[in-house]
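Anyone up for a design puzzle?
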């Protein structure tokens, strides 16, 4: 089932919903379609272009949402699909301070890593190996990351996400397998 990007009336990205739910919003006149996917939906009485981006007609106040959820996809996007130790193609998630030694599963302590580095590092500290991180890991900021972290994506969303921290993030995850 394709997914649809939902924007607030202010154009802030709110989330991603299944196509069916977005259609209901449009049919109930709660949202306007900003971008069409090119596909069509058929009901008994009419044919409607399937939306790819919709915008709510009334502004919805969104409570503070806390940090961007730490998902494998969002992490790989943050690190550009590259191993944070050697720069090779990342295939796994590594805890900088190993979990076995008290490291947290948190943005500040996880990095994308290639299989080799992950294997060599095992449960050692960077100091013991004399390794350095290519960047200091930090939580991503910007509403766009919540969208990227869902794993759903569509090139039509990019112009709507760019002002909210996506910038090249969508492009960066192009090379990353799902
Ligand atoms: Zn590596």
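Challenge accepted. My sequence:
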């Amino acid at each position: 089932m394709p997914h649809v990007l939902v924007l607030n009336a202010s154009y802030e990205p709110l989330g991603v919903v299944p196509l069916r739910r977005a259609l209901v919003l449009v049919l109930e006149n709660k949202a306007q379609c900003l971008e069409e996917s090119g596909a069509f939906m058929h009901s008994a009485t009419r044919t409607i272009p399937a939306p790819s981006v919709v915008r709510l007609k009334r502004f919805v106040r969104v409570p503070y949402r806390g940090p961007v959820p730490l998902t494998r996809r969002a992490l790989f996007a943050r690190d550009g699909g590259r191993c944070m130790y050697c720069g090779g193609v990342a295939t796994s998630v590594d805890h900088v301070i190993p979990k076995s030694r008290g490291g947290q599963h948190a943005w500040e302590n996880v990095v994308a890593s290639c299989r080799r580095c992950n294997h060599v590092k095992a449960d050692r500290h960077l100091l013991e190996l004399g390794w350095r991180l290519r960047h200091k890991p930090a939580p991503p900021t910007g509403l766009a990351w919540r969208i990227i972290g869902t794993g759903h994506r569509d090139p039509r969303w990019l112009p709507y996400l760019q002002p909210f921290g996506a910038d090249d993030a969508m492009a960066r995850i192009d090379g990353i397998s799902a």
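A detail worth pointing out: The chain is about 25% helix and 25% strand.
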